[in-house]
Amino acid sequence: MARLALFLISSLSVYFHFTTAATNNPTAAATFVESSCSAVQYPALCVQSLAAYASAIKQSPQQLAQTALAVSLARAQSARDFVARSTKFRGLKAREYEAIKDCLEEMGDTVDRLVKSAKELKSASGSKGQDFVWHVSNVQTWVSAALTDANTCFDGYASAALNGRLKTSIRSRALNVARVTSNALALVNQYASKP
């Protein structure tokens, strides 16, 4: 009787292990994210920003690219909101205010382009052939433009005479947006290259 119980428990344990592994393998999903991120310019940032979503990404290049765009969009929105609040700081010099306004415009453009890209990538998922190529090409163009916008904001503070802490805060946020957007573009390119 004890042997039968042990056999049943062992059998059920093996059954549940393989059923769970087949339907939702978090290790395989995490490995997929890590291996995909190894080909981007900022791999550690890629893994850090996408690992939490591995179970939703599974092993789908399309879902990985979609998630990378969503992360990039969230960071861009956060940076834009911070820059917008910065325009209200008291005691800004005219040159500081103009630099912040320019960056705010660039971050706004980044957000707009990433929103369009995310919608377009969803449209690409159901398309084939030339339709797929057209949708993905739009995404690549818009994400590339979003990256340029984020870099323009970052570069605008290289020589601007801003106070140290505000300059550092804006530059670090713009740099983070540029890096996650660069990673998102690389992952979109990986998705586009899949047969």
List keywords for this structure.
mainly alpha; 8 helices
Question: What do these coordinates show?
Answer:
This protein has about 200 residues and is an all-alpha fold. The chain is about 80% helix and about 0% strand. The chain is built from eight helices and no strands. α3 crosses α8 (about 165-195), α5 (about 60-85) packs antiparallel against α6 and α5 packs antiparallel against α8 (about 165-195). The longest helix is centred in the middle third of the chain and has 31 residues, at about 95-125. The termini are far apart. Residues about 1-25 have low confidence and may be disordered.
How would you sum up this structure in a few lines?
The protein is mostly helical.
Report the β-strand fraction as a percent range. under 5%
**CA-based shape:** elongated
Question: Biggest β-sheet, characterized?
Answer: none
Low confidence ranges: 1-23
Overall pLDDT score: 84
Number of strands: 0
Radius of gyration: 22 Å
Order of helices and strands: HHHHHHHH
Structural class: mainly alpha
List the helices and strands and how they pair.
Elements: H1 2-23, H2 26-37, H3 43-50, H4 54-57, H5 61-86, H6 94-124, H7 129-155, H8 164-193
Helix pairs in contact: 3-8, 5-6, 5-8, 6-7, 7-8
